[in-house]
Fold:
Amino acid sequence: WREFEGVGGAVGVVAGRAAAQQHDGTNATGQQVALNAIDMTQALGVGKAAHHNGERLIAATLATAQLAHRLFVGGIAGQVESAQTLDGDDAAASHRTVVAPLLKKYGLGGTFFVCEFRGFENKEHYMSWEQIRELSEMGFEIGNHTRSHPAMSKLDREQIEEQIRYIEDKCAQYGIPHPTTFAYPGYDTSAEGIALLRERGYRYARHGGDRPYLRDISDPMMVPSYSINHKTGHTLAYVRQAVEACPEGGAVVLCLHGVPDLAHDFVSTSPKEFRKILKYLKKQHCRVIPLRDLQ
Structure:
């Protein structure tokens, strides 16, 4: 998943578990999957059916899994000028009108990373804080994507803290749970920023990289993710490929922005393609979860 400066998203987590069983000579496969949003959050599709007497765990953000399980984490990113949409960065208006309803329809969870990006006052493009609160009330996680989506490496400690605290204060103002997950704007990081996030109690911070999260190996403050959007052709086939390539003990985090993204077409995903991804995850019996449940 690739995030660009000035573009945000929601991250959704997808966690799944497949158990193959023998019944009257027939193999039956069962799976539970969780999809995280889209910064809904972060998902690379579920793997193939689990082998006989084997288990596979699929998580979108990072779900609990045992050593022999396979984890997949999925996320969706959105955009918001001042608050957020689905994933974390810009609170795209479609996160509330398209993404959230579809996630609920398929019984999937997700994380929406929010910020107040330039142009936030345009409610055709971006969600309002009232809508962000509605996402929280619907059971979705609201993550921190900074106030204005700046490059973290260009800020000093005081500026980084102001950017982080602003979203925390807005969440408190609107009765939204204090965020414990973070998405780096444009995937840009700094040692000082990471240290500050740890100090403020953040448990997971989403990065890019187009690779799986490896439990007990990957840094939870540098959770890798896969960017989904139609411009690069990173849609269903890409998700399926990522899921199938995920090693044992790994997790796939999918990051989407607007569905569609009216402010930033270059990171947009069509509702049609998004439905295909959700149907794929549902068909694999995946239980999609928010990034906060990655452990």
